[in-house]
Write a structure and sequence with these properties.
Strand order of the largest sheet: 1-2-5-4-3
Number of helices: 0
Oligomer: single chain
Strand content: 35-45%
Largest sheet: 5 strands, antiparallel
Number of domains: 1
Order of helices and strands: EEEEE
Helix content: under 10%
Radius of gyration: 13 Å
Length: 69
């Protein structure tokens, strides 16, 4: 089963989502307020949303859909 790791850094105001192994990260690219983390095969294994603010972080919900195929 695939695992998704989500880390919300309130102090740094970022949201990081990993759907691959963070230890395989080789390079990062910034694209419009989002940093893409890639492995050596240039596959995106995660992303970091910069300036991730919510008016009420305690009540925030982060729905997502996993598609495996």
């Amino acid at each position: 089963m695939a695992k998704v790791r989500v880390v919300h850094d309130r102090e740094g105001d970022t949201l990081v989502v990993w759907f691959g192994d963070p230890e395989t990260e080789d390079v990062c690219e910034e694209a419009g307020g989002v940093v893409l983390m890639k492995d050596r095969q240039d596959n995106v294994i995660g992303f970091e949303k910069l300036n991730f603010s919510k008016p009420n972080p305690e009540a925030a919900a982060y729905p997502f859909e996993a598609v495996i195929g």
